[in-house]
Design goal:
By secondary structure, the chain is mostly helical. The chain has 18 helices and 2 strands.
Length: 387
């Protein structure tokens, strides 16, 4: 009881913002697989204070929520320790906000918080939006000056490190800058997208590519975020690779890498890494049905990448893919080995690899036949053009 009382007393000495930051940091460590003895009780106590709905994911407080509103559709609830092109970890928002308030623009941030609270109390949403937009512009300008030199950049990185040990938090700051700089362009792009894309066929790919082309001309730095908005509409994440492969001259790795939207391939690999982390958490909590669905999607993504990009195994993409699949295989093997050899495990079923079934093999042959026809037609057109 004495230890609990001492802990409660210590937590109360921290500012509300610091307690919120501590909660985000403990959750980040947990998502990264780092066990912190005694952290469960601390997290429960802090969640009771900051999340009346019992949520296990960070939600920004009012002033910061309005500031971060343009990022909302790009936020992910997961470990921020690996690459996530086009997306920002929700868990880094609290330390970033504290850094803005204490180090980057302390006086302006204090004025912003007061102005927002006054207008929220007055129930004036238009003025709230105006105040938030004005402060966003100020932060972007200060960040441009801060990131203009290596020395000031490293100084800012060191300051942010006082609020989080995440290695990628500063990358999220730079992503935030790009999103805020794009202004309403991302919002307008998002509004033009279909509500859902149930079938990402040639026609739909051409339509989305045309929209991305127009966006890219005006906002090249924000392209990954536009692609991330497209990904939200897809039935499954690996369909993003169609944007690269459909525009490539052929299916060879070199041609796909030279395509306008080759950036989607590493983005797909990022999302495959997300699935790996989710699988690890599902297995830790014995959620086998969730793990089964995750593993099925993982195998489908691996198959799609190898099927649609010839020679990917010899490329940097293929090396990363193999590393991910090796890590996933190790997770599955460790789980299956917990059970006797004569007891079947749901994760050991060959049916999870749909490409190994008769239907999957027929689909593979159909794709290969289509490739032969398309490659022959392209070669014929090239020959006619040459003559």
């Amino acid at each position: 009881m004495d230890e609990i009382d001492e802990l409660s007393e210590f937590l109360q000495k921290l500012t509300p913002l610091s307690r919120s930051c501590l909660l985000s940091e403990l959750e980040r460590l947990e998502l990264c697989g780092i066990d912190m003895p005694g952290s469960a009780g601390v997290q429960a106590k802090l969640r009771a204070e900051f999340r009346k709905d019992g949520s296990s994911q960070a939600r920004a407080t009012n002033p910061s929520r309005y500031f971060f509103a343009p990022l909302e559709l790009l936020l992910i609830d997961g470990a921020p320790e690996h690459a996530n092109a086009g997306r920002i970890s929700r868990n880094t928002l609290t330390p970033i906000w504290e850094w803005i308030c204490r180090d980057l623009l302390p006086t302006m941030a204090r004025d912003y918080v007061k102005a927002i609270n006054d207008q929220v109390t007055a129930n004036n949403p238009k003025e709230v939006l105006k105040i938030a937009t004005t402060f966003q512009v100020k932060v972007v300008k200060v960040l441009e000056n801060t990131l203009a030199s290596a020395e000031s950049t490293e100084f800012a990185r060191g300051k942010l490190a006082q609020y989080t040990a995440s290695r990628t938090a500063f990358d999220d700051v730079k992503k935030m800058q790009k999103v805020l700089r794009a202004g309403d362009a991302l919002t307008k792009f998002n509004e033009k997208l279909p509500e859902t894309i149930t079938k990402f066929d040639d026609g739909q790919v051409a339509q989305i590519t045309a929209q991305l082309d127009a966006f890219r001309k005006a906002n090249p730095d924000a392209l990954p975020f536009a692609v991330a908005l497209v990904a939200r509409r897809l039935k499954t994440f690996w369909q993003l690779i169609y944007l690269a492969t459909k525009a490539a001259a052929s299916k060879s790795t070199a041609e796909v890498a030279a395509a306008p939207y080759a950036c989607v391939v590493p983005m797909v690999l990022d999302r495959l890494d997300d699935k790996r982390l989710a699988l690890r958490i599902a297995l830790r909590h014995n959620r086998f049905l969730v793990a089964r669905d995750l593993l099925t999607e993982i195998y489908d993504a691996e198959h799609a990448l190898k099927l649609r990009i010839d020679g990917i195994e010899q490329s940097a993409w293929g090396i990363r893919l193999q590393q991910l699949m090796d890590a996933i295989a190790a997770l599955v093997s460790a789980e299956v080995s917990r059970f006797p050899a004569n007891v079947g495990h749901i994760l050991g079923s060959r049916r999870l690899r749909s490409q190994d079934t008769l239907g999957g093999k027929l689909s593979y042959l159909a794709w290969k036949g289509r490739d032969v026809v398309q490659d022959g037609a392209a070669a014929f057109r090239k020959l006619i053009g040459a003559t």
